[in-house]
Amino acid sequence: MVSVDRPTRGYRVFQGVNGLILTGVVVVTLYPFLNIVARSFSGERQIRAGEVTLWPKGFNLTTYEIVFQDGTFWRNYGNTVFYTVVSTAIAMVLTTCYAYVLSKKHLKGRGVLVGIAVFTMFFSGGLIPTYVLITSLDLKNTVWALALPNAISVFNLLVMKAFFESLPDELEEAAQIDGLNTYGILFRIVLPLSKAVVATMVLFYSVSFWNSWFGAFLYMDRIELMPVTVYLRNLIAGATGGTAAGAGTEQLTQVAANIQAVTIVLTALPILCVYPFVQRYFVSGVMLGAVKG
Amino acid sequence: MSTSTAPPGWRRALRRDWQLYSLALLPLLFFLVFRYLPMIGNVIAFRRFEPGGSILGEQWVGLRYVEMFLSDPTFWQVFRNTLWIGGLTLVFCFPIPIVLALLLNEVRTRALKRFVQSVSYLPHFLSIVIVAGITLQMLATDGPVNHVLGWFGQDPVRFIQEPEWFRTIYVGSEIWQTAGWGTILYLTALTTIDDDLYEAARIDGANRWRQIWHVTLPGIRPTMITLLILNIGTFLAVGFEKILLLYNPLTYETGDVISTYLYRTGVESNSFSYAAAIGLFEAVIGLVLITTANLLSRRTVGTSLW
Questions:
Q1: Between β-strands B59-60 and B47-48, what pairing exists: parallel, antiparallel or unpaired?
Q2: Which of A42, A280, B44, B52 could form a disulfide with B57 if both were Cys (CB 3.0 to 4.6 A apart)?
Q3: Where is each ABC transmembrane type-1 domain found (chain B) (predicted)?
Q4: B287 with A122: CB under 8 angstroms?
């Protein structure tokens, strides 16, 4: 923005230092990932000796093979997909409906409806009463325990409301004259015009459900119901040593050395694959929320 | 009866907009059951609760559970830990994104700026379990941090088991995860600052530092204040999930906070009423903090959330 003034000596020094600092930020952010990936492919001895940095040493795939053969791991991965799809679908329906209602400025009682949602951002019932409620509703060990309590994120709701408010009223008025009722206007006029914000919301919700672990940790009692995040949690908490059924001693030491790295890589992989494509949607969504929220 | 006694305005609104109201029914049911019912459920902090019985408890016991936690030394220990960790998080995790955003704003090469942004946003998208897993791996006795210490002739440190390291580890991992993503709102605010202001400042003889001080910082002040208020509001609710993943009985001394303590007493030891009393205490303080911060900010600088 300020390209007209002559760079002074001090400013050139500053630019150099700035470049160094930002390079440092990039290195500090990326190094842990690269190191984990390198470890996941490295041999046990080289890992223990602390020789692994950015590149695998003593290339070894034993742990990957063992994890790939682990039924629980794949089952939990499947659970993650299932929980994410169901939870996101429910969240999208409820959030879209409520955001649309809240976007209607003429609606009587709109202020109260907004207030009901916004108040929950600043005060919540807390862990224990929610836990007691979910238990007494008999939702434990079902997908509903994960999907229903998180069906509306107020932040997402406000982003969507802001988007709906920005649509021109004339379109809906014209549709009304053509004889469409409210439901018809929402599904045939408003939603087709809102593909960008709907896509953003689907991403927001699905990434947050995909990444969540605590709900399942709290409300699921059996290993086979867990999402993959809890599988990883049990591993890093030392609650399980990973699966090594039928493995020899040599394999066991190898697995012990890098099963955490292997599981981290396999769990993070889907997010890392979609990240470059979805990043800008997230940024624009946050900005939209910031302007209006 | 309700329609005939309702004020005519409501009757007309219902007749005209009943389809809109009908769309609000399921979401309202959600808020009622999963948000407001638990708020009411906090009455078990003052009532005896039997697992399997009514979620609102069996009979009034007054302030028994409140007195219990106020005289519980462990509660005061975790309260102090919470203040420490919350304070350190505020001191480091609030300003670092501002500094990072200002630095990014000075980068003249667009591609470089984009690259740094993309990389620094990445940890935000990962599950907190992965972040904790990576943190633990980096700090393992055979991990990179101890590797670097080895260059200086240091013996490996068992970071994960040392109480004196817990706060540093927590805050460090929090910075790693949130600093980049935290710049977005500031970078947005920075693009809205009028170039004419910089022009005017230059004509008045302001060098770059003075331009930053007199133009840039005032330009992002509303964003700073808003985020500061929000940060203060969540002060006591320190990253509960991350602490649960990073701490262990050896580091409870410094790492155990209000939320993890109430999780263990409530869910693991089934003392629901006792834990609910602690949770209610935490939530009320949170509400008071954010309301006070908001009020102070509105009175002094004119920026507020509501």
A1: antiparallel
A2: B44
A3: 79-293
A4: yes
The residue to which tokens 């902090």 are assigned: B45
Minimal CA–CA distance to B24: which of A89, A148, A93?
Answer: A93
Q: What is the ipTM of this complex?
A: 0.90
Chain A contact present for B237, CB below 8 A: no
> Using the beta-carbon criterion (under 8 Å), do A104 and B20 form an inter-chain contact?
yes
Q: How far is CA A61 from the centre of its chain?
A: 29
B206 touches chain A (CB under 8 A): no
Instruction: For residue B172, count CB atoms less than 10 angstroms from its CB and return exposed for 0-12, middle for 13-18, buried for 19 or more.
Output: middle
Amino acid at A4: V
* CA dist., res. B3 & res. B24, Å (int): 19
Q: A137 — phi, psi (to 5°)?
A: -80, 0
CB A210 within 8 A of CB A270: yes
DSSP state of B31: I
pLDDT of residue A2: 47
Question: For residues A35 and B138, is the Cβ–Cβ distance under 8 A?
Answer: yes
- Give per-residue pLDDT as tens, A250-267: 788 888 888 999 999 999
Q: What is the pLDDT of residues A81-102, one digit of tens each?
A: 999 999 999 999 999 999 999 9
Q: What is the pLDDT of residues A211-220, one digit of tens each?
A: 999 999 999 9
**Which H, E and C letters describe A73-109, residue by residue?**
HHHHHHHHHHHHHHHHHHHHHHHHHHHHHHCCCCCCC
Q: Which residue spans within chain A are E strands per DSSP? A: none
pLDDT at A1: 46
Q: What is the DSSP letter of A242?
A: -
- Candidates B239, B231, B235; CA nearest to B132 is B239
Burial environment of residue B142 by CB neighbours within 10 A (0 to 12, 13 to 18, 19 or more): middle
Cβ contacts of A268-275, under 8 Å, gap ≥ 24: A268/A33, A268/B126, A268/B127, A268/B130, A270/A210, A271/A207, A271/A210, A271/A211, A271/B125, A271/B126, A271/B127, A272/B122, A275/B122, A275/B125
Interface contact flag, B130 A267, Cβ < 8 Å: yes
The one-letter amino acid code at A94 reads: L
Domain architecture of chain B: domains with CATH = 2-36 (no CATH), 70-300 (1.10.3720.10)
| Beta-bridge mates of residue B59 | B48
Q: Which domains does chain A have, with CATH numbers?
A: 1-60 (no CATH), 61-293 (1.10.3720.10)
How far does the CA of residue A24 sit from the closest CA of chain B (Å)?
10
Under the phi-then-psi rule, with left for phi > 0, alpha for psi from -120 to 50, and beta for the rest, what region is B107? beta
Distance from CA of A122 to the nearest CA of B (A): 6
Nearest to residue B162, comparing CAs of B147, B150, B146, B179?
B146
